[in-house]
């Protein structure tokens, strides 16, 4: 039953966030600072999620095959590779390191 409570609370929270966004006056949203913040916030959240999923295992920090895959993806991005190639490089390097016992 606890799972359904968590799902219900999450659904209400999402609805409240959406409603709050609709209730904000238009002149507030059009400010340059708010626009810049709205553009950068998803990038920061995605970076934090990537770091947490790559370097965390429960309550411990780890450096394993996922970090090598992230490094490969970063190199592919610096070389301006297409997105699918970036993902493929990350998958291949991660799988290779795990196959070698890393």
What does this molecule look like?
By secondary structure, the chain is mainly alpha-helical. It is built from five helices and two strands; from the N terminus they run H-H-H-E-E-H-H. The chain has helices at residues 2-23, 26-29, 32-55, 65-78, 83-99; strands at 56-57, 60-61. Helix 4 (65-78) runs antiparallel to helix 5 (83-99). The radius of gyration is 19 Å and the shape is flat.
Task: Give descriptors for this structure.
mainly alpha, two-stranded antiparallel sheet, about 80% helix
Helix content: over 70%
Number of strands: 2
Beta-strand percent range: under 5%
Rg: 19 Å
Outline: flat
Poorly predicted tracts of residues: none
For the largest sheet, list the strands in their spatial order: 1-2
How do the SSEs run, as a string of H and E?
HHHEEHH
Backbone structural class: mainly alpha
Enumerate how many helices there are, as a single number.
5
Distance between the termini: 39 Å
Indicate the mean pLDDT.
92
Q: The biggest beta sheet, please?
A: 2 strands, antiparallel
What layout of secondary structure does this protein have?
Blueprint: H1 2-23, H2 26-29, H3 32-55, E1 56-57, E2 60-61, H4 65-78, H5 83-99
Antiparallel strand pairs: 1-2
In short:
It contains five helices and two strands. With 102 residues, the chain is mainly α. Helix 4 (65-78) packs antiparallel against helix 5 (83-99).
